[in-house]
Amino acid sequence: MSLDMLIGLLTKSLGQTLQMVVIAGLIGSLIGLPIGIFLATSGKGELFPAPIANRILGAIVNATRSTPFIILVVAIIPFTRFVTGTSIGTYAAIVPLTIATIPFFARLVEAAIREVDKGLIEAARAMGATPMQIVFKVLLAEARPSITLAITMTLVSLIGYSAMVGAVGGGGLGDLGIRYGYQRFMPEVMLAVVVVLIVLVQIVQSAGDALARRFDKRNRKT
To answer: Which chain regions cross the lipid bilayer (predicted)?
Structure first.
């Protein structure tokens, strides 16, 4: 394979991977954020006490998270077809990627919020803040660095998941590696795909870490 052809294939596949990661990450995070907030604040004696709903939602989240991603992709093929009209290709791959993102990100958000100092919550309550004000002005504000890291971890995981959907015709770098690197015995293509994935992960992780440090009040100059 010529260098120009390899670069062309890598560019196209990278674009598909970025499309899958960005769209699934955005939709999954927007849905997972309120779920995570609810899981962190709906226990007995918390801001929005609903222990039964908390346990039911937590069980659903755990069940979805415990399902291996490749099995999830196959299991929801009918739903994927209903949403996108097909079960293969980049747009079809976004559906299982989004569904896998929601519970993953929700649990990270829950953990980030639970790390917030309980004294801040009590202080806000003593000042007459409503539960919603506490969520937005205390919990989310204080957990912003951790939530930023959660988004970073989610995107990094999505990059790995997007490579997996290549095994079922999902497109992207994973599909390129399987079709050319494995099936056509072109190790240079597989190596190029691995290098691009590593560089992509490093860029996302470095950007996320830098943004989290910027949001961390402990790192701000007084």
So the answer is: 20-40, 52-76, 88-109, 147-169, 189-212
If phi > 0 it is left, if psi is from -120 to 50 it is alpha, else beta; for residue 89 that is left
d(CA 14, CA 107): 28
Taking only the tens place, the pLDDT of each residue in 73-82 is: 889 989 999 9
Torsional class of 46: left (φ above 0), alpha (ψ -120 to 50), beta (otherwise): beta
Domain boundaries along the sequence of the chain: 3-216
DSSP letters along 40-94, please? HH-STTSSS--HHHHHHHHHHHHHHHHS-HHHHHHHTHHHHHHHHS-SSSHHHHH
pTM: 0.89
> Which of 203, 200, 181, 183 lies closest to 6 in space, CA to CA?
181
Q: Label residue 219 by pLDDT band (50, 70, 90).
A: low
For residue 222, what pLDDT band results from cuts at 50, 70 and 90? Answer: very low
How far apart are the C-alpha atoms of 134 and 47, rounded to whole Å?
A: 9
CA distance 78 to 63: 19
Q: Read off the amino acid at residue 139.
A: L
Question: Does the domain made of 3-216 have the CATH classification 3.30.420.40?
Answer: no
The rounded distance, in Å, linking the Cα atoms of 44 and 136 is 20
